[in-house]
Amino acid sequence: MSEHNAHTPNALVAIDLGSVTTRAQFFDAVEGRYRFIAAGEAATTAGAPAFDINHGVLQALAALQEITGRQLLNERGFLLANDNEGNAGANALTATFSAGPPLRVVTVGLLEGVSLNSVNNLVDTFHCEIVDSLSLGDRRSPERVIDAISQHLPDLIVIAGGTNRGASVSVVRLANYLALALKLLPEDSRPPVLFVGNENLQTEIETLLSPLTALYKTANIRPSLDHQNLGPAEAALGVLLFEIQAKKLQGLEQLNRLAETRLMHNAQAFGRTVRFLSTVIDAPKGILGIDLGASSTTIASSFAGELEVRNFPELGMGRSLNGMLAETQLQQITRWLPEDLPEEFVLDYLYNKTLLPSTLPSTPQELAIEMAAARQVVRLAVGKSLGMFPSNAIYPLMGTVPWFDRILVAGSTLARHPRPEQSLLAVLDAVQPVGIVTIILDQNNLASTLGAAAAVDPLLAVQVLESNAFMNLGTVIVPVGTPRPGSTVLRVQVEREGRKEDVVEIAEGKLSVLPLPTGKVADLFVQPLQNMNIGLGPGRGGWIRRVVGGSFGLIFDTRGRPIQMPTSFNKRQELLQTWERTLRGGI
Amino acid sequence: MLAPITYIQPLTTLRRTRYLPVEGSIVVGLGDRLRASDVIAHTGLHTQHLMLDAARALGVPANRVDKFIQREVGESVDEGAIIAGSRGLASRQLRAPAAGKIAAISEGQILLQVSDESLHIQARVPGLVIDIDPGQSVTLECVCAWIQCLWGNGLSGEGNLHMVADSPQHQLTADQIDMSLRGAILIAGHCNQRQALELAGQVPIRGLILGSLATRLIPVAEKMEYPIAVIEGFGQIPINADAYKLLNMHNGENAALNAESNDSYEGLRPELVIPLSEAGRPPQPVEMQSFRIGQTVRVLSGRYKGQLGEITDLRDNVIYESQLRGPAAELTLTSGGRGRVPLANLELLG
Predict the structure, then answer these.
(1) Which residues of A touch B216 (CB under 8 A)?
(2) Residue A167 has pLDDT above 80, yes or no
(3) Phi-psi group of A51: left, alpha or beta (phi > 0 → left; psi -120 to 50 → alpha; rest → beta)
(4) Cα B253 to Cα A490: distance, rounded to the nearest angstrom
(5) Mean pLDDT across the stretch B266-287?
(6) Average pLDDT over residues B95-102
(7) Can you state the percent helix, strand and coil of chain B, rounding each to 5?
(8) What's the sign of the alpha-carbon dihedral B61, B67, B73, B75?
């Protein structure tokens, strides 16, 4: 730990090294509380022609310096200050990164549904692409498996298998296949191996594999059949992910040396923020986080501090739009377009975006296409994550997300939209939440940063989360059930400052809004009709206390789950316009 | 802000380093002059193996079988040759089921390499070998005219350029393709006709450079067995004026089309290289520049997509037509008129 760590930093610069944009964010104490002050941006320079992230980092810092008027750079680069006097430098720097291609990983487990499943879950948490998996049930001949592993040229091999009192011979047999595959590769091309299986076999695995390549070992991720323990393996994989990427991305190690804590991938940092949020606010039903990035989408959930993260490198708003397009019918995107744009125009835009991920939508039509595509990317990522939520998550309907208290939404596609009602609508359409849930927009792209900054000073993360750096879009109430079309499904009474207001009836099949300005608090009595469920049980209503208002107040989404869009374009357009008008103008 | 650059250069000295995916054998020497199709190296990546279980074959435990293995890694064996065996009248033996080479041995299991389908790595661009990192890479240098493209189907080829496009807006159709184009690299405008791509493959041509490609034809282009590169992108976009002029100028000349996939992290982009002999040794392209007034740029997206222009002003915090905010450039467009374009949607023409 460097000397400047000895005291609590009170001016912090955070670098967010994205695949398209590098951001430098400045946090400082204002009237005794941490605040997000400003951010500077530059294009990320990990790839051609610069091939060094430092160009982008320095440009982002220079932009931040210009915005804040505070000197952050000197002739040697970033200015690290010993104190917060003199309006110069910062006391600490943290950094997160999502630049770099996903790691190509081969996973090995004994049984497909047990240890292989666990090791795949572990790897899916990170920015990794599983290029091959091997288990005892593999139908390929051993030599085909061995040839495949060596030809994939993976960045990393992760091997699990065997409970701590369980199988040994089979695990060693699979490890021997790996040994043979490694021997086929020249020494300097052999990937490191992470062993997360039967702890009693660590010595045997070490004898077999460590003469061939770098071997890392952690506690068993499946110590018994009914228990999964990913924590230690996650920590080890996080370190390996950084070390492998640091060899590929010039400048990453240099940035790491400047930072207070080891550089963390955005997916892990975002997960930390979601977990952190679930521990500092009252969220018995858990928090869902969605980070829609250019190179990947991260879904994180935290129930009582228990974090689950999935990173989808095939689903993003840049090059990885390809992944979404490969598993999407065009109509699943165009159904969200408010204009009747030719199919070719939509496809051309999206495929060109895969080639030129740093381009921005410059016309309203292009912006509408991006928002429609964003809905589909998020919808796919959330759909693929349904299996990761813990067993105590409650699903009101097959195929919906569980009840959540909060949804934190990050990613510049949603954060930069000039009309936040469009961002809110995109989240509601894509996630299709249920029950009573507050939607928070990370309008300043801080969510991942705070996950890393919390390691330096948890107070910073708490105070910035409590500030207005994040936009509370509103609390949404979504009843689920099978009501008659157009009938009343909810009766709602609002009580503000002890004064009860008139009962409002909410009809099926629409979006409705009751104004409740940001920061204002109200109590709500909600009575579901027709056996609808808002999370209190079918047909059960009650008081919802201390609902905090957001930009769009209280939103009632009775459009059903899943939302059925009319096939006629005119009807669809009318609906989309109505929903947008509703959010913009209130009930 | 560092500007992305697409190079359209009438005369430059181009350097390309070809890295081997794993250590291999380099088969060219310093000073060799190569064609794009010449093999520079091969690696053993794509060989196939048979796995032989010596312990099971001999009936001895895996931890004791090593002493019975009579061959070493790297040794060649004929079909039927003894690989492992114990002494004695009733001894068991493990024989090679096919001719091959012992590739690896671990815990009594032997990998026998039975095919030698090495991965042959081609130069992909013509040039003079100016540097070799043994086993790792070869660097070539070529004096040439050079056009970078935006998308490629992964293949490469060489041949004489043949201009099919009669204007930047040209549309490629099957009736423009006949047997006289065999072996040529065609230059065409936009392609929206599957038959045209398929017929070109049957001729066969050696390559196709398009201004733009219809999005629905991407999977077709990916399956073609000849290189296809797209200069402007997907949709109907005319070839930009600079590229069209340069391509016209070299119509009929020999060129190499390296339609490799675009990978920014690896520094790979599809490109057309037209070697120029007796052109001296012009400077290498400038690699990094920031946007400045007076530069020629190409518009990548939006209302003016595909057009060239000159930067007349640079502004911060501009509200775009989409209502997003950010830095923008004022342009005088070469097609006439003026436009304001987000900087993120521009690239320099180098």
Answers:
(1) 344, 347
(2) no
(3) left
(4) 76
(5) 88
(6) 92
(7) 15, 45, 40
(8) negative
Q: Are B242 and B8 in contact (CB under 8 A)?
A: yes
ipTM of the assembly? 0.92
Determine the average pLDDT of the residues in B270-299: 89
DSSP state of A576: H
Q: How far is CA A540 from CA A108, A480, A532, A534, B232, in A?
A: 48, 12, 8, 8, 59
Beta-bridged to residue A121, according to DSSP, are none
Structural tokens at position B277: 């002999």
Of the residues B19, B52, B73, B111, the best mutation for testing chain A's interface (the one with the most A CB atoms within 10 Å of its CB) is B111
Under DSSP, the state recorded for B216 is: G
R_g (Cα) of chain A, nearest Å = 25
Q: What angle do CA B100, B106, B112 make, to 5 degrees?
A: 10
Alpha carbons A480 and B275: distance in angstroms, whole number:
68
Mean pLDDT across B177-197: 97
Burial (CB count within 10 angstroms: exposed 0-12, middle 13-18, buried 19+), residue A587 = middle
Question: Which of A348, A367, A422 best probes binding to B when mutated, by most B CB atoms within 10 angstroms?
Answer: A348
Closest CA to A43 of A64, A60, A63, A62: A60
What distance in Å separates residue B29's CA from the closest CA in chain A?
22
**What number of other Cβ atoms are within 10 A of residue B286's Cβ?**
11
Residue A4 above 80 pLDDT? no
Handedness of CA A213, A218, A223, A226 (dihedral sign): negative
CA A67/CA B324 separation, integer angstroms: 19
Amino acid (one-letter) located at A556:
F
Phi, psi of A465 (to 5 degrees): -65, -35
Q: How far is B179 from chain A (nearest CA, A)?
A: 32
Q: Which of A59, A147, A362 sits opposite B302 (nearest CB)?
A: A362
Please indicate whether, in this complex, the C-beta atoms of A47 and B264 are within 8 angstroms of each other.
yes
Which residues of B are less than 8 Å from A363 in CB distance? Answer: 302-303, 320-322
Contact residues for A86 (Cβ-Cβ < 8 A; gap 6+): none
**The tokens of B306 are what?**
């595909």
Pairing of strands A103-108, A128-134: parallel
The DSSP secondary structure of A189-227, one letter per residue, reads: GPPPEEE-S-GGGHHHHHHHHTTTS-EEE-S-S-SBTTB
Cα distances (Å, whole numbers) of residue A458 to A352, A462, A485: 42, 6, 49
Categorize the per-residue pLDDT at A586 as very low, low, confident or very high, splitting at 50, 70 and 90.
Answer: low
A368's CB contacts (< 8 A; 6+ apart) are A337, A338, A339, A341
Per-residue confidence band for B88, with pLDDT thresholds at 50, 70 and 90: low
pTM, to two decimals: 0.94
Contact, A568 vs A504, CB < 8 A?
no
Q: Residues 198-257, chain A: which have Cβ within 8 Å of B?
A: 208, 248-249
Is the alpha carbon torsion for A411, A414, A417, A420 positive or negative? negative
Q: Residue B107 in contact with residue B99, Cβ under 8 Å?
A: no
| B302 near A CB under 8 A | yes
Query: Encoding tokens for residue B35?
Result: 């064609």
DSSP secondary structure letter of residue B281: -
CB of A432 within 8 A of CB of A254?
no
In terms of Cα–Cα distance, which of A405, A441, A225 is closest to A303? A405
Q: Please, are residues B209 and B127 in contact by the beta-carbon 8 Å criterion?
A: no
| Residue A6 predicted with pLDDT over 70 | no
A523 and A494 Cβ atoms separated by less than 8 Å: yes
- Torsion (CA) A566, A567, A571, A574 in degrees, nearest 10: 70
Taking only the tens place, the pLDDT of each residue in A127-138 is: 999 999 999 999
Q: How large a percentage of chain A has pLDDT more than 70?
A: 98
- Predicted confidence band of residue A1 (pLDDT cuts 50, 70, 90): very low
Closest alpha carbon to A50 in A103, A102, A99: A99
